[in-house]
């Protein structure tokens, strides 16, 4: 078979794969219970965050251990915008002067604002990346993630302290579907439950974000990102602005995480410092490694892995399906972290290019030239 025919066949397979993925996302709620739809909505949230982190770490080579903090920023911005200023006391208004005057915003419209605020913070955090790289940059971003749960407790009158902000019960008119747990879609003339609605909302944003990322990495910014990843010295000598593209990568990646955090606030109807632990940032980095650095193909597998692994461990422990030596250990709070580490090591040995590399091997007969 001629090389051109193989190339066309490979492109056709990709198009069919993407179309099949979109169709599967569209029809999946019909085969899920309401509870499972809620779970897959959270998988979609992780998918969005991983898409952004892969632009930064996979394509630009900047290791970040602080993306859980960007999700926290997005979550709290969304919650504060939904709650609005009228519910705040006089002592809180000065600290929340940036909030719109009124009864708060509809939940959906807070998502782009949360993404924008997170992007600004990401740009500022990206400034140290101009002088730091590798382990040193990872430590700076990790310090940001460690400090975020403490920062979110103050001022307590604004953030709710350790209890956080509760959206349910006070903002039903601003939570789509929050009044009667039903959302009417006029275009389809169909009623959705709140969990189905959040599923479609998360995955619609996820697919749009994936399309934007795909266009980005295949354009001039993507080539600049990969040049920086391969060699900053060579990239600079070729005319690539390290300041512009490294801070741009941080800002874009943080925007994705901010949107994911806003969605998490809407799905959970509550935000608190405990909703965004330090381990969340590590989970996201592990998810990107599982998906495959520098590839958008395996992100869904990375999102499924980091969400369902702790649940699978817990369910196996409850059923008594684990070996005797692991049965009691699986119930300890730190066991998911241990298993994350073990699985990550296995993936690095067996699948060094992650899920994307494995899928690439499967498609090799379509693209291999003789």
Q: Measure the end-to-end span.
A: 9 Å
Strand order of the largest sheet: 1-4
Instruction: Please provide the count of β strands.
Output: 4
The rough form would be described as: globular
Helix content: 55-70%
- Please work out how many helical segments DSSP would assign: 17
* Pattern of helices and strands: HHHHHHHEEEHHHHEHHHHHH
Helices and strands: which structural class?
Answer: mainly alpha
- Report the major sheet: 2 strands, antiparallel
Rounded to an integer, what's the Rg over CA atoms? 21 Å
- Low-pLDDT residue intervals, each spanning 5 or more residues: none
If you average the pLDDT, what whole number results?
A: 79
Question: Beta fraction of the residues?
Answer: under 5%
Number of separate domains = 1
């Amino acid at each position: 078979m001629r090389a051109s025919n193989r190339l066309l066949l490979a492109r056709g397979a990709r198009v069919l794969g993407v179309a099949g993925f979109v169709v599967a996302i569209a029809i999946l709620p019909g085969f899920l219970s309401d509870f499972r739809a809620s779970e897959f909505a959270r998988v979609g949230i992780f998918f969005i965050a991983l898409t952004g982190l892969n632009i930064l770490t996979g394509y630009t080579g900047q290791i970040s251990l602080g993306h859980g903090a960007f999700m926290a920023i997005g979550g709290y911005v969304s919650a504060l915008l939904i709650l609005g200023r009228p519910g705040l006391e006089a002592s809180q208004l000065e600290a929340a002067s940036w909030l719109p005057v009124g009864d708060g915003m509809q939940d959906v419209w807070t998502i782009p604002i949360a993404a924008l605020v997170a992007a600004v913070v990401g740009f500022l955090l990206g400034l140290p990346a101009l002088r730091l790289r590798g382990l040193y940059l990872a430590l700076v971003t990790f310090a940001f993630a460690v400090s975020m749960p403490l920062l979110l407790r103050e001022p307590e009158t604004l953030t709710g302290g350790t209890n956080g902000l509760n959206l349910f019960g006070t903002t039903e008119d601003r939570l789509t579907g929050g009044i009667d747990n039903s959302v009417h879609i006029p275009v389809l003339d169909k009623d959705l439950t709140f969990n189905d609605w959040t599923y479609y909302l998360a995955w619609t944003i996820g697919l749009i974000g994936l399309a934007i990322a795909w266009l980005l990495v295949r354009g001039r910014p993507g080539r600049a990102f990969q040049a920086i990843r391969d060699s900053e010295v060579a990239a600079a000598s070729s005319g690539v602005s390290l300041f512009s593209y490294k801070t741009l990568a941080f800002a874009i990646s943080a925007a994705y995480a901010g949107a994911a955090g806003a969605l998490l606030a809407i799905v959970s109807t509550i935000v608190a410092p405990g909703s965004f632990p330090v381990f969340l940032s590590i989970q996201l980095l592990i998810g990107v490694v599982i998906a495959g650095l520098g590839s958008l193909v395996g992100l869904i597998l990375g999102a499924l892995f980091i969400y369902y692994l702790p649940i699978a461990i817990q369910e196996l422990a409850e059923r008594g399906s684990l070996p005797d030596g692991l049965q009691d250990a699986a119930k300890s709070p730190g066991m998911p972290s241990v298993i994350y580490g073990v699985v990550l090591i296995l993936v690095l040995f067996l699948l060094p290019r992650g899920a994307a590399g494995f899928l690439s091997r499967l498609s090799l007969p379509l693209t291999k030239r003789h």
